């Protein structure tokens, strides 16, 4: 069970980081848009915490994506 949680935490972290960068936002800007502390955004992006559904919704809304997009493991092509 712990391995599944860790994997999901890493998927969420990567997807948030990729979307944030795609939208050219800093962690500070995302935190402000989502009304979350920068420290918490940093912990989420570094996969140190599993965000609650409440924070997932706030981040998804700020990034203009769905929660599903944040928790789905995508096959990324290396360039």
Question: Can you give a write-up of this model?
Answer:
With about 80 residues, the protein is an all-alpha fold. Helix content is about 65%, strand content about 0%. The chain has helices spanning about 1-20, 25-35, 40-45, 55-65, 65-70. Helix 2 (about 25-35) crosses helix 4. About 20% of the residues are buried.
Shape: globular
What is the assembly state of the chains in this entry? single chain
Provide a count of the helices.
Answer: 5
Portion in strands: under 5%
**Order of helical and strand elements:** HHHHH
Enumerate the spans where pLDDT stays under 50 for 5 or more consecutive residues: none
Distance between the termini: 33 Å
Mean pLDDT: 93
For the sheet with most strands, the description reads: none
Radius of gyration of CA atoms, rounded to a whole number: 12 Å
Number of DSSP-assigned strands: 0
Which secondary-structure class do the elements indicate? mainly alpha
Percent of residues in helices: 55-70%
Which characteristics define this entry?
single chain; 79 residues; mainly alpha; 0% strand; globular
Write the layout of secondary structure elements.
Layout: H1 2-22, H2 27-34, H3 38-45, H4 53-63, H5 67-71
Helix pairs in contact: 2-3, 2-4
Short description:
With 79 residues, this protein is mostly helical.
């Amino acid at each position: 069970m712990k391995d599944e949680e860790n994997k999901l935490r890493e998927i969420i972290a990567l997807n948030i980081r990729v979307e944030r960068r795609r939208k050219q936002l800093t962690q500070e800007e995302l935190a402000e848009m989502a009304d979350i502390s920068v420290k918490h955004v940093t912990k989420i992006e570094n996969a140190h915490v599993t965000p609650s559904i409440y924070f997932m919704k706030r981040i998804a809304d700020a990034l203009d994506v769905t929660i599903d997009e944040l928790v789905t493991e995508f096959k990324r092509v290396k360039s």
